[in-house]
Amino acid sequence: MELYLSNFSAQIRPDRHVALLMDNAGWHTTKDLDIPDNITLIPLPPYAPELNPMEQVWDWIKSHHLSNSCYKDYEDIVEKASAAWNEFANNPELVKSICNRAWLEHRNL
Fold first, then answer.
1. Does the pLDDT value for residue 40 go beyond 70?
2. Which terminus of the chain is less hemmed in, N or C, by CB atoms within 10 Å?
3. What is the distance between the alpha carbons of residues 58 and 48, in angstroms, rounded to a whole number?
């Protein structure tokens, strides 16, 4: 996580600060995490799937590709999970149907 934040931080323009929403996974909330000065982590409240569409994405991937399956080894799991992710990510209508939130439509830009 620290490596990700460091690499992400390096991509942020000098005049910007990023508020990064995170779930409450242990590696996101550890007190030992070194957070760059140009990033603020904002934890999502627990049990708030309407704020974290990745929960529905993983449900779709599991139900359409990974559930009720046996895998030969770690590489087989990674290969099948990657193929499932690519199928999802390459279907914009599916992404919109799963990730869209009504409250996004009411934003003032």
1. yes
2. C
3. 15
Q: Has residue 25 been placed in a domain? A: yes
- HSE (side-chain half, CA atoms, 13 Å) at 76: 6
Angle at 28 between CA 83 and CA 57, to 5 degrees: 30
In the chain, how many domains are there? 2
Domain that holds residue 6: 2-43
Give the pair of three-digit tokens for residue 15.
Answer: 């005049």
My answer on whether 15 and 34 are in the same domain is: yes
> Average pLDDT in the 21-26 region?
79
Beta bridge partners, 43, equal: 22
E strands within 18-86? 18-22, 39-43
Instruction: Determine the pLDDT at residue 29.
Output: 73
In the predicted model, what is the mean pLDDT of residues 27-53?
84
Average pLDDT of the segment spanning 9-37: 87
